[in-house]
Design goal:
Keywords: Cell membrane, Membrane, Protein transport, Transmembrane, Transmembrane helix, Transport. Its main location: membrane. Belongs to the ExbD/TolR family. The chain is α/β, with parallel strands linked by helices and 142 residues long. It contains three helices and five strands, in the order αβββαβαβ. It has a domain of 70 residues: Nucleotidyltransferase, domain 5 (2-Layer Sandwich), CATH 3.30.420.270. A five-stranded mixed β-sheet has the order 3-2-1-4-5, with helices on one face. β1 and β2 form a beta hairpin. The protein is elongated, with a radius of gyration of 32 Å.
Length: 142
């Protein structure tokens, strides 16, 4: 840290208008060194293998159940509008006891809130459905 003790000419009344940036640079360099040392340690805590994406083309069977969730959160069972998730639960309970149990395919609009899709998934779990899948559009390969 520097300090001004006076000038050579003897003029003590001059104001020094410079900003001393040495402490700022020192602190920034220390912070840079700390981040460079600690960032590799934080990133290499646990080795995991993330799942890879795979899309499977499925053959729709007539006994499969199609549930559509509109962007407004309305639920449709094979083109029939459900009042709420309780009515959906009643329909799914009937399907859950069939052997073999049909698959449930959920089609959600792109702008549907996650809450609406979550309610449908929760209702299928409560009803005892084993296989639930999401139907999506394949990406354009153009």
């Amino acid at each position: 840290m520097s300090m001004s003790v006076g000038s050579d000419s003897g003029d003590e009344d001059q104001v020094m208008s410079e900003i001393n940036t040495t402490p700022l640079v020192d602190i920034m360099l220390v912070l840079l060194i700390i981040f460079l040392i600690t960032s590799p340690v934080v990133l290499k805590l646990i080795k995991i293998k993330l799942p890879e994406e795979n899309n499977q083309v499925i053959q729709t069977k007539p006994e499969d159940v199609n549930i559509v969730v509109s962007k407004d959160g309305d639920i449709y069972w094979n083109q029939k509008k459900m009042r709420d998730t309780n009515e959906l639960f009643d329909f799914l309970k009937v399907e859950a006891v069939k052997l073999p149990q049909p698959e449930v395919h959920v089609r959600g609009d792109q702008e549907t809130r996650y809450e609406s899709i979550g309610k449908v998934i929760y209702t299928t779990q409560r009803a005892g459905i084993q296989k639930v899948g999401f139907i999506t559009e394949p990406p354009d390969r153009g």
